[in-house]
Write a structure and sequence with these properties.
single chain, about 110 residues, mainly alpha, Arc Repressor Mutant, subunit A, 2 domains, about 60% helix, DNA binding, repeat
């Protein structure tokens, strides 16, 4: 009779699903700084995190990655987005993040008022 292969992954029930702690953020940052990005499915086990690979990837890409610009956009950036939207129409939204979509919506709302 064949035995099931023991998985080294954390079981689904054992995964942390809530907010990330400062300690988890530090572990993820330190691991990626040393090993680099990639192999997200094996990263949690190797780093000692009780998170899924997708959660680690999204946390890194959206919150922890160096160079992420936070805060309000400049008026020049807003004008560029509006010009690109006038040029490309809603096709711009297929390339853009939700933030750009929200900026366009609010700009149109301001113009209508």
């Amino acid at each position: 009779m064949m035995r099931k292969r023991e998985s080294s992954r954390v079981k689904k029930e054992e995964l942390n699903r809530g907010a990330w702690t400062d300690q988890e953020d530090k572990i993820l940052k330190d691991y990626i700084m040393f090993h680099g990005e990639g192999k997200w499915s094996t990263l949690p086990n190797q780093a000692g995190l009780k998170r899924c690979g997708k959660s680690c990837r999204l946390r890194w890409k959206n919150y922890l990655r160096p160079g992420i610009k936070r805060g309000n956009i400049s008026s020049d950036e807003e004008e560029l987005i509006i010009r690109l939207h006038n040029l490309l129409g809603n096709r711009l939204l297929t390339f853009a993040f939700t933030k750009i979509h929200n900026i366009l919506f609010l700009s149109k709302k301001k113009l209508a008022a």
